[in-house]
Amino acid sequence: MEHLVGKRVLFISPSFFGYEYEIISQLENMGAVVQYFDERPFSSSIAKICNRVNLKFFIKKTIRQHYEKMLKAAADNAFDYFFVISPETMTANFVERLKVINPNIKTLLYMWDSIANKDAESVLHLFNKVFTFDRDDRDLFPNVEFLPLFYSKVFSRSSGVVSINSDIKYAACFIGSAHSDRAKVVKKIVKEFDRRGMKTFVFLFCPGKLFFWLRKLFTNEYAGMSVKEFSFTSLSKKEIQDVLDSSDIVIDIEHPSQTGLTMRTIEMLGYGKKLITTNADIVNYDFYDPNNIAVVDRNAPVLTDAYIQSVYKTPMNSVVLSYSLKVWLEKIFVQIDRSI
């Protein structure tokens, strides 16, 4: 992608299990000069909770100071692109001021959460191009384009990392954040393997013990579950790979208010693993194959012996490659250059 060579990109994204650094690395490999800021100017559990429950006035000063640093960076550098992922603290006023400072900047927004979940509707009109991973959001907002998520080199069969023929320890595994009803749904699916006497691996990540106890006290998300069933430290990419290599099937549960495919779902396409998902919209994607992907009801999941025993059928290479991080970025940056 030669037209990114030497171009300056101001990249703002929430810190999310290292994906932001994989995006930076790929942009730099494509020739871009990237300056990155975490979209959220805080790391404490209390600040994150204030932000999530819309009590931003407690952290308003911290947010304002954080965005002033970004405006200073924009004043010191003439950026060619402003690339944002799923903002939740960004204001329309900030974007407007940025565009005054860098009047020729091309603005790009990608939502890997639903627009309503992040309250991002107020800034949509300020971006030249807006993309979403969620087909429903595309239908709700006419100027938003649908673009599924990606897998990075770490989860690419061609990277030399994947070991498809490795020894299998687990019939299935789940690794992910314990949001919404996810923990309960995972337990229901795991019972399908338990009753067959098959071993599974489950890793439920919670961002902090305070977060856990607030959820436990004020919601029914963790009802009937012990704090010992959760982890408060995330796994490294290497640890995740080790579990995936040792598992025959990967379980993934989307947020009940979203229809977009999760990152894990796309990663398993790149990694070459069978998948169990509650997301029925997956049947509308070009890589869907019932031999590789089992769609189950999140309220009453049922698995067949035929699916559990099936052997993974590799999709066409062209289809798999079309979901790579490199192609994902090309689609975003090529489209904005064609439209402006």
SSE layout and pairings?
Blueprint: E1 8-13, H1 19-29, E2 33-38, H2 45-52, H3 60-76, E3 81-85, H4 92-101, E4 106-111, H5 115-118, E5 129-132, H6 135-140, E6 144-146, E7 170-177, H7 182-194, E8 200-205, H8 209-218, E9 230-231, H9 237-245, E10 247-252, H10 263-271, E11 274-277, E12 293-295, H11 305-309, H12 317-321, H13 325-339
Parallel strand pairs: 1-2, 1-3, 3-4, 4-5, 5-6, 7-8, 7-10, 8-9, 10-11, 11-12
Helix pairs in contact: 3-4
Alpha-beta content class: alpha/beta
The separation of the N and C termini measures 17 Å
CATH fold type of the largest domain: Rossmann fold
- The count of DSSP E runs of length 2 or more, i.e. the number of strands, is 12
How many distinct helices? 13
Count of all domains: 2
Low-confidence parts, pLDDT < 50 over ≥5 residues? 159-165
Class of the largest domain, according to the CATH hierarchy? Alpha Beta
Largest sheet: 6 strands, parallel
Which outline best applies? globular
Question: What Rg, in angstroms, do the CA atoms define?
Answer: 21 Å
Strand order, biggest sheet?
2-1-3-4-5-6
Average pLDDT, all residues? 89
| SSE string, helices as H and strands as E | EHEHHEHEHEHEEHEHEHEHEEHHH
Helix content: 25-40%
If classified by CATH, what would the architecture of the largest domain be? 3-Layer(aba) Sandwich
Q: Report the β-strand fraction as a percent range.
A: 15-25%
